[in-house]
Amino acid sequence: METTPPNEFSPLSETTLYILISLVSGPLHGYAIAKEVQALSKNRVILSVSTLYTTLKRLLEDGWIERVGEDPEPDDGGRPRKIYTLTERGQRILGAEKERLRALLALVRAQTVGEEKWRP
């Protein structure tokens, strides 16, 4: 049984956060995760193959995601595409990060310093 509180893993790296968010709507294979991260970040985060699969490996080992099969459509090299989904643990950790970011955003919004200097 997991005894570490989910907020003990905060803050999450941007890569980890985007990958977890990409899996909220359902299981995806690696290439689809990379494309979803790119779309969610409005092309600001583009994952290299190495970064994507290193992070997926770590998330699998930590029990934040799990493999749920293979896509019947192989990749361009003929290899099966592994499909990943969030685990309950991954969902709890993402929820804790969401609350941390919400509190941080509330703090930033309450500040007025710098608003006159920076306007989007």
Q: How would you explain this protein's 3D organization?
A:
The chain has a single domain, classed as Orthogonal Bundle (Arc Repressor Mutant, subunit A). It has 4 helices and 3 strands. The chain has helices at about 15-20, 30-40, 50-60, 90-110; strands at about 30, 65-70, 80-85. Strands 1-3-2 form a 3-stranded antiparallel beta sheet. Helix 1 packs across helix 2. The model has no long low-confidence stretch (mean pLDDT about 90).
Q: Helical segment tally?
A: 4
Q: What's the overall average pLDDT, rounded?
A: 88
Which sheet architecture does the biggest sheet show? 3 strands, antiparallel
Poorly predicted regions are: none
Spatial ordering of strands, largest sheet: 1-3-2
Overall shape = globular
Strand content: 5-15%
Portion of residues within helices: 40-55%
CATH architect. name: Orthogonal Bundle
| CATH domain fold name | Arc Repressor Mutant, subunit A
Sum this structure up briefly.
It contains 4 helices and 3 strands.
Write the layout of secondary structure elements.
Blueprint: H1 14-22, E1 28-29, H2 30-40, H3 49-61, E2 65-71, E3 81-86, H4 88-109
Antiparallel strand pairs: 1-3, 2-3
Helix pairs in contact: 1-2
